[in-house]
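Bug #77: duplicate submission created two jobs. Keeping one. Sequence:
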Amino acid sequence: PQLDLSRVHFTGKLAYDDYLRVLQVSRLHVYLTYPFVLSWSLLEALATGCIVLASDTEPVREVIRDGENGMLVPFFDTEALAAKAVHALAEADTLLPLRENARATIMECYDFETRVYPRHLAILARLQNH
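Kept job's structure:
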């Protein structure tokens, strides 16, 4: 009964640019995956500087460090999820360092032009020389 439904949006399918704009203005991105691989959507959310609350699973821990560049909760702990979501929404302004660290993580480790593509080329070069 306390949920303001006028502030909850179900967008349906979005064009990529629109999806990025939604992430940029979002106060919180909840990312739950178990036990699957990490998806590009988590990286995109972090890259936009969105606060990310994610499941504390192996693939997610490869990118998110709880309290440093995102927030983690045990996948099956709905009470912890709700409590951290409320905290993130209530304290969004004080969590600016978390948002900045999220974007920095992506730029430092996963940027396509400066990190991923050069690594890919190096692997191909090594394979070609063997």
